[in-house]
Specification:
By secondary structure, this protein is mainly β. The chain is built from four helices and 21 strands. It folds into four domains: about 130 residues, Pleckstrin-homology domain (PH domain)/Phosphotyrosine-binding domain (PTB) (PH-domain like), CATH 2.30.29.30; about 110 residues, Immunoglobulin-like; about 50 residues; about 100 residues, no CATH class. Helix 3 runs antiparallel to helix 4.
Length: about 450
């Protein structure tokens, strides 16, 4: 980790659990003067924000039922910045407490705090509720282009199967209550018989009463024995319709009843509405897999969500809570055992990139710049370090990205069916770093480059 230098009158107040900022894991360190964000994997300081530069801290909930804090602040250069801190799910609502602690510290240091959802409200605490308020705008990407459907393998195929007729199972609580009632009746009977036998004014009928009572007491255990609760292994409740695939990344969901939810990674999302056991292929690698699976009934049966890579279990989440929710947040590395996407891929002929077709333009000798060139209309976005700029233009555009280093992400889409070439170039300090191009009709050109 980069060394955090503190002033003589400055001290560290709080360190948070893991946060997600622009898809990257971070840790937050709050001192008596500033907020420091450190990348978890590299240990580099991502942001160093004095409390005095924060104009507003707003809390809310995104579509993943995760609390977040949006910071509005001014950079040292005077630019207005927007940064979203997502507190990923922890057991026992630990992420909610982390967000409350951070908001409290910010408020104590004269940072204006605004909450879209009151802290401790049912909307924040009930993860199974489908109603979400304070939703993050950054996750509502309604206009994102369509992506190919993911492969689904198993006894379920995104169609909820009707459950076979089931006999109503007696709750273990009913059996326990019956056993307790029998024991109470037995004890009362013994007490009454004992009182009768020890009374000094008992008549000749005492023997008859004692004999009859003794017969009832002796026969009671044989007529109504105390039921024994049987504990069985639940391994056989989830028979695998197929073996765990040994190539690529897969998610296995097992539950005898109905369940719904979703899985997503790298912008792709699959909706789940099924029952039984199903396998869902994730044609991705070196990325974060996120998701949520919810039971649709009030039973105490166990629902499990497992992530496999090359047939090896990477992560497992489960719950027996009625109408419970299983959350998935797992980082997977390279896909093991073959191709990441085993489906057939169309053959694409390589297309030349004629540099001479680009109109001449002067690139500034300092800073990071993105150049887009296409004679027709195009739309998309360019972003870096939590800042996103929407683009809707035509012709030649030169866009300044106000960063000195980091990952540049974006996608630009042609808006017509011509075979003219769309170019995207990234320059740093006047030097070309990377170039992407395509001449296919209505093509989407992506860029993911570290500068």
């Amino acid at each position: 980790m980069d060394t955090i230098t503190l002033a003589s009158d400055e001290s560290i107040i709080h360190k948070t659990q893991t946060l997600i900022i622009s898809g990257v894991r971070h840790e937050a360190v709050l001192t008596s003067r500033r907020l420091i964000l450190v990348e978890s994997e590299t240990g580099h300081i991502h942001e160093d924000i004095p409390f005095t530069s924060i104009s507003l801290a707003t809390s809310g909930i995104n579509r993943m039922r995760e609390p977040f804090i949006t910071l509005n602040f001014n950079s040292p250069e005077g630019e207005k910045r927007l940064l979203e801190l997502i507190f990923i799910h922890l057991t026992g609502n630990g992420n909610i407490r982390e967000m409350e602690t951070c908001l409290t510290i910010l408020g104590q240091h004269n940072v204006p705090v605004e909450s879209k959802v009151p802290l401790g409200s049912p909307t924040l605490l009930r993860r199974g509720d489908r109603t979400v308020t304070g939703e993050s705008f950054a996750e509502a990407q309604a206009n994102r282009p369509a992506v190919p459907e993911w492969t689904i393998l198993g006894s379920s195929h995104q169609i909820r199967k009707p459950l076979p007729s089931e006999e109503k199972q007696q709750s273990p609580l009913v059996l326990i209550a019956a056993a307790v009632l029998i024991i109470v009746i037995f004890a009362v009977g013994v007490f009454i018989v004992g009182q009768s036998l020890t009374a000094k004014n008992v008549t000749v009928n005492q023997n008859v009463t004692g004999t009859d009572t003794t017969r009832v007491v002796a026969s009671s255990p044989s007529v109504t024995p105390t039921p024994q609760l049987q504990v069985t292994d639940d391994t056989d409740r989830y028979p695998l319709p197929i073996s765990v695939p040994t190539t690529g990344v897969w998610v296995r969901v097992s539950y005898p009843g109905n369940y719904t939810g979703f899985l997503k990674a790298q912008g792709r999302q699959i909706e789940i509405n099924s029952s039984g056991t199903g396998f869902y292929q994730m044609p991705v690698q070196n990325t974060m897999i996120e998701g949520m699976i919810e039971k649709q009934d009030g039973s105490a049966e166990k629902i499990k969500a497992e992530v496999y890579n090359g047939g090896t279990l990477v992560s497992k989440s489960e719950t027996t809570t009625p109408r419970g929710v299983v959350d998935i947040h797992v980082m997977v590395g390279p896909a093991i055992g073959g191709e990441v996407i085993p489906t057939l891929t169309p053959v694409v002929q390589p297309e030349p990139i004629p540099d001479v077709s680009l109109p001449p333009v002067t690139i500034p000798s300092s800073g990071v710049w993105v150049r887009i060139s296409y004679p027709g209309n195009y739309t998309g976005s360019i972003g870096a370090k939590g800042r996103l700029e929407m683009i809707n233009s035509t012709g030649n555009q030169l866009i300044h990205v106000p960063v000195t280093s980091g990952m540049i992400d974006g996608s630009i889409e042609k808006q017509d069916g011509s075979d003219r070439t769309l170019f995207i170039e990234i320059y740093k300090d006047g030097t070309l770093v990377t170039r992407s191009a395509s001449s296919r009709p209505f093509e989407l050109v992506d860029i993911h480059t570290n500068v």
